[in-house]
Amino acid sequence: MAFTIDHYSSMISQDKTGKHHTESKAETTIIMLPSDANPKGNVFGGVILKYVDLIAGLVAKRHSGHANVVTASIDRMTFLKPVFIGNALILSARLNYVRKSSMEVEVNVEAEDLDDNTRVHTGTAFVTTVALDKYGKPTEIPPLLIGNDDDKKRFSDGELRMLARLKDAGKLE
């Protein structure tokens, strides 16, 4: 299995107080093989979730830099369309929201039929990751720099989702 990351930007933050989402975003494409699927050729949801988790962790690690990054949650993943053996699974991920030590990474998933070059959106997941220090305790990470109206909306929406997650987990009243 090949796992390649095409990273869009080699920008290095000049602002030591924060990073822009373009500094950490990632995309990967993986061919789906028979070992990834059931006998009818449908790729297992767990295989797709594995790649969602991997690319989200990469984005979070790029943003946090020094820290160990772990997954805290993956919001509900609805599989909108099937992915089949022989399809290219295309995942693109970007940071939407950053708190003190936690981050929300949005992962969009597409399947490409390589025989007719068509792509379908198969799902979106929001992955919460936490940066940990060498003792396994949450550690502060750079803030997310906001560049335009889309960034502002994603940040605001991400903050609302994060607060809802914390409330659901009993960490907010």
Description:
This protein has about 170 residues and is of the alpha+beta class. The chain has a single domain, classed as Thiol Ester Dehydrase, Chain A (Roll). The protein has 2 helices and 7 strands; from the N terminus they run E-E-H-E-E-E-E-E-H. It has helices at about 45-65, 150-170; strands at about 20, 25-30, 70-75, 90-100, 100-115, 120-130, 145. Strands 2-4-5-6-3 form a 5-stranded antiparallel β-sheet. A two-stranded parallel sheet has the order 1-7. A hairpin with a 4-residue loop joins strand 5 and strand 6. The radius of gyration is 17 Å and the shape is elongated.
Q: Helical content, roughly?
A: 10-25%
Structural class: alpha+beta
* CATH T-level topology: Thiol Ester Dehydrase, Chain A
The radius of gyration computed from the alpha-carbon positions, rounded to a whole number of angstroms, is 17 Å
Topology:
Elements (H helix, E strand, L loop, with lengths): L18 E2 L5 E6 L13 H20 L3 E7 L13 E11 L3 E12 L4 E15 L11 E2 L3 H20 L5
Parallel strand pairs: 1-7
Antiparallel strand pairs: 2-4, 3-6, 4-5, 5-6
Q: What would the keywords be for this entry?
A:
alpha+beta, five-stranded antiparallel sheet, 173 residues, Thiol Ester Dehydrase, Chain A, 2 helices
